[in-house]
Structure formats: C-alpha cells, structure tokens
Design a protein that fits this description.
This protein is mainly beta. It is built from 6 helices and 18 strands. A hairpin with a 2-residue loop joins strand 10 and strand 11 (about 200). Helix 2 (about 25-35) packs parallel to helix 5. It starts with 11 loop residues before the first helix and ends with a strand.
C-alpha cells in the first residue's frame, strides 16, 4: 500500500522505461480499436512537476461542486461498469490552470488535454499520450481506461458521504468511467492530540497543524518541534500517509509521549472525521492510533 502512495512524476526510473509503441500490444490494440484515441509514443510530463503534481488532492468546496469545477486528484474506480484493475492504483490528476490531465491507467503514465463545460455537462479529452512500459499482470484495465477517455463526452456529479463521485459518459450517455475524489478538507487546521493508541493524553503542548493544500504537517511533540509531508493513497477513501517527518533533538522530561506520537503518525493510513470537531487516525488494521480535537491554539 505504501508504494502506491508515492507519486510517479518524481521517478526518473519510470521515464527511463519508456519503450517503443510496439512493446505494449494492449495500448496498440486500444488505439486501433478506437480512432478517437491519439496515443503518442511518449507522454509529455509537466514542465514544473513540483507545481503541478501536488502531494495531496485539491480541496473541493460546495461552491466548486455547484459550479461543476473539475480539478485535483481522482481515483479511477470503475471502467465500463467493472472495477478498474492496475499494477498501481489508476487515477487522474486534473490541472485546470494548464487544461491538462495527468495520471496513471494502472500500468503506464498518461496525460491529455481536457475541456469541459458545466452548462451542458460536456467533458472531452484530446491528444492522449502514454508511456509504453510492458505490463506484467493479466486482467489489467489499462487499455480500457485509455479507450474510455477517448470516448468521453459528458460528466455528472454525485456526493457520497465525504467523497465526490464523478461519472463520465460517452456520446450515447453510457457510463464509461467512475472517478472518486477524496475530500480531505476536514483535516485542515490545528489539532490537539487527545489520545495515542487509545490511551488519553493530557498535555496541551502536543498538537499539530495540517495544511491539506500544501501537503504539509508540523507541530509539537510536547517537547520537540516536528514537520513533514502529507500524502494520499488513491486506492482507498480517506487514506493518508505522513512522510519525511523531521524532529528537533531536545531532551524531553517525563512523561514523554514523543516516540509514541511519531510511531503513530508513521503507522497512520486512514483519516476518519468524528463529531464535535474530532478526527481519528487509523492504521491499516482499522485500529485508532491517534485521536485529535480541533483547537484554535497555534
């Protein structure tokens, strides 16, 4: 699960594996079967990767939803009515500033230009490009994802709990893709740590500040200052990962929760909003490792 969370855009190894068009028969067959798909030999990555490839999905607001805005990271959940299957989690990352979409079809890096109009719910993709790495698994839906993008004509919205779902249709209004956008807005702000591994913590100095848009976290262990990055897992709802956590090195008096706090952050794989301004961070077994309460304290 952890390797899925790592962004593909920073990897020179993947781009070094770009092969000739003939090396991936599935993509070749996809291009032949659907004349609307324009698959290039090599995907053109953004000029400024750090600016475009944010570590966390863009936050949606109710106003964005009402306007039909398409932006940020979307996990590809279904293609042609069946579960999307990939060697890595298939997803799309929409960059409205450049009117381009980047992502992964479950095997290869893809990108394309996109245009949409909320007034008539139209959505189209053009100049689809893909890397040509050979895919080692059977049953992948990578070429079907490419074909679905080539067939896209309309889109619609649905809100399911904290998750935004977008369905993409072909010209005959048949659903070809279902995407899920994870809404992490509930994590934004300053949090007091109230429990670690189910044990209550009574130390007002232990807190953290999460900036979803920037993909950053910083705070106080009760003794030392820490900071790190926040990443998401596109394969499951509300899945997160705290990475690259750095800590100052002051000696800590007892009781010292620092080590347990840092271990809990590294173990956290899912965020769950609760009532009364509280949030739980869970590990991959579903056990609560941190209980946090929203605070105005900085």
């Amino acid at each position: 699960m952890k390797q899925i969370k790592k962004t593909i855009y920073g990897s020179a190894v993947l781009m070094a594996g770009v092969l000739a068009m003939s090396s991936c028969s599935a993509l070749k067959n996809s291009a032949k079967s659907d004349p609307g798909i324009d698959v290039k030999k090599e995907a053109v990555l953004p000029d400024d990767r750090e600016k475009i490839v944010q570590p966390v999905s863009s936050v949606y607001t109710s106003e964005d939803l009402a306007k039909g805005i398409i932006k940020g990271d979307w996990a590809i959940e279904k293609v042609n009515g069946k579960t999307a299957v990939g060697e890595t989690a298939p997803y799309l990352k929409f960059d409205p500033a450049q009117k381009r979409v980047y992502g992964n079809n479950g095997c290869n890096i893809i990108n394309a230009a996109y245009a949409y109009n909320p007034a008539d719910s139209t959505l189209t993709f053009s100049n689809l490009a893909s890397t040509m790495m050979a895919c080692g698994m059977d049953g992948l839906t990578d070429y079907e994802v490419n074909a679905a993008l080539g067939a896209a004509a309309y889109y619609s919205w649905n809100l399911n709990g904290d998750d935004y779902l977008m369905t993409i249709y072909d010209v005959d209004r048949n659903p070809v893709l279902q995407l899920m956008h994870q809404n992490f807005q509930f994590l934004n702000g300053t949090w007091a740590v109230k429990a670690i591994d189910g044990e209550p913590v009574d130390n007002p100095d232990i807190k953290m500040v999460i900036d979803v848009e920037e993909g950053k976290v910083h705070g106080n262990t009760g003794c030392n200052i820490f900071n790190g990055s926040l990443e998401t897992d596109m394969d499951a709802a509300n899945s997160i990962s705290f990475q690259k956590i750095g800590v100052t090195r002051m000696a800590c008096p007892l009781p010292n929760y620092e080590t347990r706090l840092l271990v809990a952050l590294e173990d956290a794989s899912k965020a769950k909003p609760l009532l009364e301004g509280r949030v739980e961070l869970l590990n991959n077994l579903g056990k609560a490792v941190l209980l946090m309460e929203r605070t105005s304290d900085q």
